[in-house]
Design goal:
The protein is an alpha+beta fold. Helices cover 43% and strands 14% of the residues. The strands form 2 sheets. A 4-stranded mixed beta sheet has the order 1-7-4-2. The protein has a 3-stranded antiparallel beta sheet with strand order 3-6-5. The longest helix is centred in the last third of the chain and has 25 residues.
């Protein structure tokens, strides 16, 4: 099964596409969404990008990943709040989620349960390139992969080379921070450290007998500012997605950008 590509020409076609996911239905298969500002980008975790030059040298890649983890864990307690959470019992994906939040490349790939949040990330930058919004049925993938390879918590993350390439697991955060909560964040993680997630997800659903397609919505570059303007009326801005002064600053910059765009559009239509 390949990803079905759909070009979104205007806001009406965007709304039609979102309605097609039946997100309000009890039978919703757990659609997850990821927005990327360039439609040519693959579903590649930040760690895979950082170690790509190793050319599938698994032992070396795992050594680098483990070294980063140990260095982070050694001192993380100095800065984490004393909130009663026993982080010594955390599994690796929980540590990776925390590391990624603070800027370290990991094998996790961020998703969201909101197509509108994903649209924001597809439209916010790379103005000369079409954006993309990826969507897949996370609940179905999780069920299928767990039945093949066992549950996520039983996985060994330094397994044999390439053995678990199809084992891509959808996972929720163990605990949210203000940003991940605002973004309705979740993530996928592959046991194969070099796995590209779109291919792994394809493999994970290749024997599921259902009509739900893996979809990739193309957001035309000429529609990005229009879509951002509409999202702003829904309070989907940097200020709401990135709580804090930096998000407020980003949101003010978005305001300037959109007001300038509206002024130019108004002059053209005068």
């Amino acid at each position: 099964m390949n990803w079905t590509t759909v070009r979104i020409n205007d806001w009406r076609s965007w709304q039609d596409a979102v309605e097609g996911y039946d997100l309000s239905e009890q039978s919703n298969p757990g659609w997850w969404f990821r927005g990327q500002a360039d439609s040519d980008w693959t579903l590649e975790p930040s760690l895979r990008r950082a170690i790509k030059g190793l050319d599938s040298a698994y032992a070396r890649a795992h050594g680098i990943e483990l070294g980063a983890l140990r260095r982070f864990q050694d001192r993380a307690h100095l800065f984490l709040p004393s909130d009663g959470v026993d982080r010594s019992k955390w599994k690796l994906p929980a540590w990776w989620a925390l590391m990624q939040h603070f800027g370290c490349p990991t094998r996790l790939l961020d998703w969201t349960e909101s197509p509108y949040v994903a649209l924001y990330f597809a439209a916010i930058s790379e103005t000369q390139a079409d954006g993309a919004l990826w969507a897949f049925p996370a609940s179905l993938v999780s069920t299928n992969v767990s039945s093949r390879y066992g549950p996520l918590e039983h996985q060994v993350w330094d397994g044999e080379d390439g053995l678990f390439e199809a084992a891509v697991y959808p996972a929720y955060l163990l605990s949210h921070n203000d940003r991940s909560a605002s973004q309705q964040a979740c993530f996928t993680v592959c046991v194969d450290i070099f796995a590209e997630h779109s291919k792994a997800i394809e493999t994970a659903v290749d024997d599921i007998a259902h009509t739900l397609a893996l979809t990739k919505l193309i957001i035309p570059r000429e529609r990005k500012l229009d879509f951002l303007s509409r999202l702003r009326t829904m309070n989907i801005t940097a200020a709401s997605l990135f709580p804090g002064l930096d998000g407020l600053g980003r949101s003010a910059a978005e305001y300037i950008r959109l007001r300038a765009w509206r002024s130019v559009e108004g002059q053209r239509n005068a």
